[in-house]
Amino acid sequence: MTRPDRTLLGRMLSALGAALLSTAATAQTLPAPGATVEAIKKRGELVCGVDSGIPGFAYQDSSGTWKGFDIAYCQALAAAVLGDAKKVKYVGTTAKVRFTVLQSGEIDVLIRDSTLTFSRDIGLGLSEVAVNFYAGQGFMVRKSLGVKTAAELQGATICMITGATLELNIADFARSKGTTINSLLFDKTEEAFAAAEAGRCDGYSDDTGSLAAAKSTMKVPDDWIIMPEVISKEPLGLHTRDGDYRWSDIVFWVDTALKTAEEFGVTKENLDSKKTSTDPFVRRLLGLEGDFGKQLGLDNDAFARAIKAVGNYAQIYDEHFGPKTLGLPRGQNNLYTQGGLHYPLPFR
Questions:
Q1: Is the pLDDT of residue 324 over 50?
Q2: pTM summary value
């Protein structure tokens, strides 16, 4: 795999090039799915690395069932590769060990509210496959603290998880404001929540999606406010290991299929009726025309199975972050057609 192909930009450019050459590509011999998919099929389940427990992204309910936005992505991949969204083994990972677990081969893919960065791409031997959630780091503090902006947090102590970009971002922010903000670090988010609740720190810092989740877990959510500042860019997304470009391609295009389904109004409820559509974009997405699934070494209806299992991107977002759950506005997580940043590449 060439170095440019390992980056998200490289993957997007590669995909665009492939689109331009689609006629020639389809005339070639269809490829094998790659070592990772072969291992998944032999094992009979996808091993998906997720957060150890945070509302919205990934958590276990009272019966031990995994739920969340990232969990839906794991299920979509299992449906595409194995034909069954339930064939997933979830491995809860802390921020500290998440990349080591992926590097060692203990998991097939990491879908864990993790930021795509230069150092993780180049320094850790990972592929930054796709952004599935745009966020930024912010602060949640007690109302009783009496501050209205993050710049007023002089001398405050903020709880957060270790092994992420959070502490570095706060250090940069405090330095730029000429102030001092202390950090109290924990391995797990639930430990950081509990420490904030117990008054060991003045507030909690994490990505915007996680802040909404944190507030929902507090005994009295109205005692806390999420401050307006966003101090960093946190494009959260899907990570694979370097070395199996075909598997990275599959992960990328399943993500694209979920977003494309929203763009063309395909839901898990109407997918079967959409199979009679004459819209060429819908027909290619559902595997009714072309051989896009086969070109990845999958069944041609692989993307249709993923959508049928978990819904389109909007359905997944609404189920876990929408008004009936955490009430987190989509903002940048809208499609480009709605003023957001998600711009799915074409199936062509």
A1: yes
A2: 0.85
